[in-house]
Amino acid sequence: MEANHSGMDGLTYEVAVPNSSVNHSFQFADVALLQTFKPLIIPCYALVVAVGVLGNYLLMFVICRSRKMHNVTNLFIGNLAFSDMLMCVTCVPFTLAYAFNPHGWVFGRSMCYLVFLVQPVTVYVSVFTLTAIAVDRYSATVHPLKKRTSVSTCAAVLTGIWLLSCALVAPAIMHTYHVEFKEEGLTICEEFWIDQEKERRAYAYSTLLMTYILPLSAVFMSYLCITVKLKKCVAPGNRTKAQNGPQQARKKKIFRLVALLVSAFAVCWLPIHVFNMLRDIDITLINKRYFLLIQLLCHLCAMSSSCCNPFLYAWLHDRFRAELKKMFKCSHRIGAPANHCRGTVVL
Predict the structure, then answer these.
(1) Which residues on adjacent β-strands are paired with residue 104?
(2) What is the pTM of this model?
(3) What CATH number corresponds to the domain at position 46?
(4) How many domains are contained in the chain?
């Protein structure tokens, strides 16, 4: 019996377990090569965690503390920030520890299943929330007279996103195993589809479709329609070139932001999806000597998306920057009256 798997956020092991023998042979990619890149990989991951956690925390801080930020769109953005921050906390530390620890998984059986549940759930929640934001902005821009999404509907959508994400992860969790090999001093926490190769591939491809291709298509089409709508929008009256300047500048700024949003989403997640697809089609397509290193670099690229979102979805907007500046001014002002900032901040 042979099992070969690499989870979205875990380390890949190839384990051959003959049915007629109790001896276990392990075929590892070149771990020594991976260790040589440890001084470079760990600081990069640490930077992603620091920027991702701090950026998304400040984003949630602004949304929660400012009355002006309490709307449906910002509820979606707040959910995105929460899932991205949770992604940084759960995906990165355990992935690094699992990758560089010679004993494999050292966090116990319960944490094995919990971490392997939370990791993909946060990824899926982020992807689906990005899609919901795109659809919400499409509705607000292309159909401005249409009734906006209510807070109760937004809460229902967010609940559905989390439930759908958990449902998508369920098959993988059912095939996740915590196995201890005491003689070798190794413990693995991996996803194995024993004698179910067709089912595994079907699940992998359907997950790729639902968590990358369809969301990316929806985001692209939504922002494309928004861009077309903004280009067709003409200010009323006979305006001079000088008067149309600010409007054209605003359109260009929005267009650049749209391009960055779609590009960041596509670029950050493309490497890990290509890697997983090649691995599923034929694992020999990936050089075994560099297998673990390539996997970690693809994973790092995917995790960097959690750093991009606070900047692209919030800090490029004047209102978020203004509210954040106000809050820092109020919090650092010595001797200010207790109610000095209540006009803007909910204390």
Answers:
(1) 187
(2) 0.78
(3) 1.20.1070.10
(4) 1
